[in-house]
UniProtKB/TrEMBL annotation:
It comes from Bergeriella denitrificans (Neisseria denitrificans). It comes from the Bacteria. It is an enzyme of class 3 (hydrolase). One of its GO terms (molecular function) is porin activity. Residues 1-23 form the signal peptide. Belongs to the outer membrane porin (Opr) (TC 1.B.25) family. One of its GO terms (cellular component) is membrane. The keyword Signal applies. InterPro entries: OM_porin_bac, Porin_dom_sf. The gene is oprD. This is Porin D. Its EC number is 3.4.21.-. Keywords: Hydrolase, Signal, Transport.
């Protein structure tokens, strides 16, 4: 098992490997048209070590542990892998309607794993006695695009939508990609509009572009289509409001509203307030049963150019959890303010609060170094009146009045500011989670060590 300190050193070395001596040059022989000259090639090396230690009798159910009694399962998930992400984007052809193309290549290499320690989301694997993680894997995808004014339409299987309804995750070795059509328009001053329809997804540790979307609560769900429409109006950089509406076909409709405002107090001091709301309601064939759940959250931050202190409260109103789009192994990025790195604090009727502290060392003489720590606590979960679909997912367990859980996240990250390794980012994350009752996650301690080096042409 690699030690985290050794992993960080090796990660930095691997991720900083030079890709080309011509990093600051363009191919001068390419035709002098926007299609070529506005194009961009980005190659990102990412090295990722992940260790999740299941505490107090918990165990890993995946890989060769599948089907074994709890006492015979491995007590951790522990993997190390290296990935390369190649992203090629063209510009647009001249004319009233410009056309272009994009391509994305993904390659992963297993550095350390086993059938008993797999399931981290880094490496593809199969469940069962012979289940072993892959040694090398990869996928290629692409998209075509058209531009009219400041409106861009894309269609393909390498898209990465990022909005409050569907935000594909990039929190493991390789990013999630989706198949569908997206539209983004900036034709109206201060207004950004987005719309999309997506039918398939490639999970972060998969090579299959034909997977269906699932939900965070039910990894086995088969959502045939996700669609959304919404936009954000920005008065000033930190004063904006947005609304979105979306549908997970035959599961539920989801509605979202959010507003943010910042008051400058003099010098670099500020107070920032953010209000967030979600509403889920069953739709179509109601495959997730009858749903009527709401989430409301409010956060306030006092900060300056060195420190930031954030306090937040969040509550689910309704007898069902506030579910959201996911792949079969990981959720999309939840936009809930109290979402941690493991759980989203979005169970039925759940209340939660968080305190967070950020420290930027730029003004302290170490530009590029940042620290973050936060503590989130959830309580008052009550699923006694949840519909049978969600109750069955919890094994018909009813939360008790004293059930609660908390998550603590700590992160240290550093980005090299100059020299040949400029842009190299090193990140260490530690999570502790403790629960009572039969929450869907047990007690865990987790370490992630990530090194990333992007190179662009």
């Amino acid at each position: 098992m690699p030690h985290p300190a050794h992993t960080l050193a090796a990660s930095a070395l691997l991720a900083a490997l030079p890709i080309s001596a011509a990093a600051d040059t363009r191919y001068e022989y390419l035709p002098d048209t926007p299609f070529f000259q506005d194009g961009k090639l980005t190659v990102t090396n990412r090295n990722f070590y992940f260790n999740r230690d299941f505490r107090d009798g918990g165990a890993n159910p995946f890989g060769t542990n599948w089907g074994k009694p709890l006492s015979e399962r491995n007590g951790e998930r522990n993997e190390w892998a290296h990935g390369v992400i190649v992203d090629l984007q063209s510009g647009f052809t001249p004319g009233k309607i410009g056309f272009g193309a994009e391509a994305k290549g993904l390659v992963g290499l297993r550095l350390d794993s086993s059938g008993a320690r797999t399931g981290t989301g880094l490496i593809p694997y199969t469940n069962g006695a012979g289940g072993q993680p892959e040694r090398v894997w990869g996928s290629v995808g692409g998209a075509v695009k058209a531009k009219i004014g400041e409106t861009v339409i894309k269609a393909g299987n390498s898209l990465t939508p990022a909005n409050p309804i569907l935000h594909t995750a990039d929190v493991r070795l390789l990013p999630v990609t989706a198949t569908g059509v997206s539209l983004e328009s900036k034709d109206f001053d201060k207004l950004n509009l987005q719309a999309g329809v997506f039918t398939h997804v490639r999970a972060q540790e998969s090579t299959n572009h034909d997977d269906r979307f699932s939900t965070d609560q039910d990894g086995g769900a088969q959502v045939k289509r996700i669609s959304y429409l919404g936009g954000r109006y920005t008065w000033q950089p930190h004063t904006w409001a947005q609304v979105y509406a979306g549908e997970l076909k035959d599961y539920f409709n989801q509605y979202h509203a959010q507003a943010n405002h910042r008051w400058q107090l003099g010098g670099s001091q500020y107070i920032n307030v953010n209000a967030t709301g979600y509403y889920n309601h069953d739709s179509g064939a109601k495959k997730a049963g009858k749903i009527n759940a709401k989430l409301g959250a409010l956060t306030a931050t006092y900060g300056n150019d060195i420190h930031a202190l954030t306090l937040g409260v969040q509550r689910v109103f309704g007898d069902d959890p506030l579910d959201y789009a996911a792949t079969r192994t990981i959720g999309s990025l939840a936009r809930y303010p109290n979402a941690g790195w493991v759980t989203q604090f979005s169970e039925a009727n759940e209340k939660s609060w968080q305190v967070r502290y950020d420290l930027d060392f730029k003004k302290l003489g170490v530009p590029g170094l940042e620290l973050m720590g936060r503590y989130i606590k959830g309580y008052d979960m009550d699923n006694s009146k949840s519909n049978s679909y969600y109750r069955n997912l919890r094994g018909n367990y009813t939360y008790q009045p004293d059930d609660k859980h908390w998550e603590r996240n700590i992160e240290a990250k550093y980005t090299v500011q100059s020299g040949k390794a400029k842009g190299l980012n090193l990140r260490v994350r530690h999570t502790t989670m403790r629960t009572s009752g039969t929450y869907r996650y047990g007690n865990i301690d987790e370490v992630r060590v990530i090194a990333q080096y992007p190179w662009s042409l």
